[in-house]
Each structure stands twice: as C-alpha cells, then as structure tokens.
Design goal:
The strands form 2 sheets. Strands 1-8-9-2-7-5-4 form a 7-stranded antiparallel sheet. It contains 4 helices and 9 strands, in the order E-H-E-H-E-E-E-E-E-H-E-E-H. The chain has one domain: Small Protein B, Chain: A. The chain is globular. By secondary structure, it is α+β, with helices and mostly antiparallel strands.
Amino acid sequence: MGKTLAQNRKARHDYIIEGTLEAGIALTGTEIKSVREGKVNLQDAYARIERGEVWLVGVHVAPWAGGNRLNHEPRRDRKLLLHRTQIDQLVGRVKSKGLTLVPLDMHLSERGQAKVELGLARGKKSYDHRRAIAERDARRDLDRDLADVRRGR
C-alpha cells in the first residue's frame, strides 16, 4: 500500500468490519490531480451495487485549483473497478448477510493509481458501542497499572 490520502475513522466507530477489499476508482483528469493533493473526504460515503457495477457514493473530491470551467463535480458518483467474480461475491454477501459496503481509506498505489479500501460492514448496536468503550477503558486502566509497576510505584 502506498501513500494514504484519506481515512474514514467514523466507519470503524459506527460499523463492525467483517472483511476488506481493495478497488480502483475511475476518475477524470482533474479529479486524480485533486486526489493526489489529498483533497478527499470519505465521511458519510458508501458504495452500492447497481446493474452489476459498484459505485462509490458521497465522496467529496475538492475541485482542482488549476482547473477551469471543465472542472469535475465534487460529489458525483464514481465507478469502482473490480473483477466480475469480486462483484458477484460482494452481491452475495451484501444480500444474504445484510452487510453494507463502506470506504475505509483512499490511498495511492506504488504506480500512482488511486485505490479505495472497502469494508464489508455490519452496523453496531448501542450495546456494541458500550462494550467497545468498556474494553477501551479497561485496556487504559491496565496500561496505567503496568506503567506504575515499571516505574516502581
């Protein structure tokens, strides 16, 4: 994986990620230039499967500063580039298990191509949030106690 451009931290908070998949993105010329500058926002974005194709919806790519009147639309739907077998597997898992496709991060590959990491996610319930908070607090208390022992207190 190359340079990370944007992360969707809220996705890991709101969903239980059951699996991940990397996909390419079909971008226009001004979009890729803006993406390489890191002007991408994945918050409130998701992916949907429509007529055998996967589309990334709700991603904001800021207009390129050097663009003219032919600059891109910031919130347009963008096609994800996946193999047919990958799309068929996604369709099966999303329909049978009730999962959602959520973009976790966007990065550049070693070859300079924009890639997005999709997560197969299940929404967290309120008790899942409480459990995560309790585990985090317990881990923090344990780390604090271990630090005190190391310091000789």
